[in-house]
Amino acid sequence: MSSSSDFSSSSSGSEAEEIFYEEIVEFSGIVPYDEDLEPLATPEEAAEHEARMTEEAEIERLYQARFTQEVELAAWCLCSNCSVALATKAEECQCCQEIDRCGEGMDQFGDPKRCITLHPGFKEVCLSKHVLEVAALGLKTKSGKSYKTMFIQGQRTEEEFLRAVAYRQFTRLLWDYIGSSRHYPLPCCAYNKIRKHFPDEKGQYRGFEDDDI
Ligand SMILES: [Zn+2]
Ligand SMILES: [Zn+2]
Prior knowledge:
The chain has helices at 2-27, 43-67, 73-76, 100-107, 122-127, 129-136, 147-152, 158-175, 188-197, 208-211. By secondary structure, it is mainly α. The longest helix is centred in the N-terminal third of the chain and has 26 residues, at 2-27. The structure holds zinc ion (ZN) (2 copies). One zinc ion binds at residues 77-79, 81-82, 95-96, 188-189.
């Protein structure tokens, strides 16, 4: 009796093992080829990507048309402080009114529609020579060069040095502190004010990104 009972229990044990084994196979991730599992973009994702690329290309064309003045200033500058006269490239041709953060920055002073260069801190933070000199201490370009050292070693004129620091200061004013690797767009009006305040004697200017290599 006891032996029969042992046999039966051993038999059911082996059945259980078989079921267990099948379950392992089933959950082991070995599955037949299924093309739905390929990491390809879905038609929706592909369409979204395509739309984004088209939009970016359109924005690029738009900035280019502004830069070459095919599109006149009055058609895009709503703050009345932008000017393409000192702009160095197409992407500098955007008004502060098109950059959400500028509106947010001015909203705290009661009017999101005022030009960002009228921010109460702009003049002191971005145009004061002494503030810029102090701000430059410890400020390095992407490749780790000190702005101050490049100026002292004669690789930059004083105005170039001050402008480069002013661009960085502007982003700090608006976006709080950021590292050198991440850049936000500077509106045309901010470039314009900074360049007018620290003019280049040859009228040659570099963009924010080009100054920070
Ligand atoms: Zn503007
Ligand atoms: Zn503006």
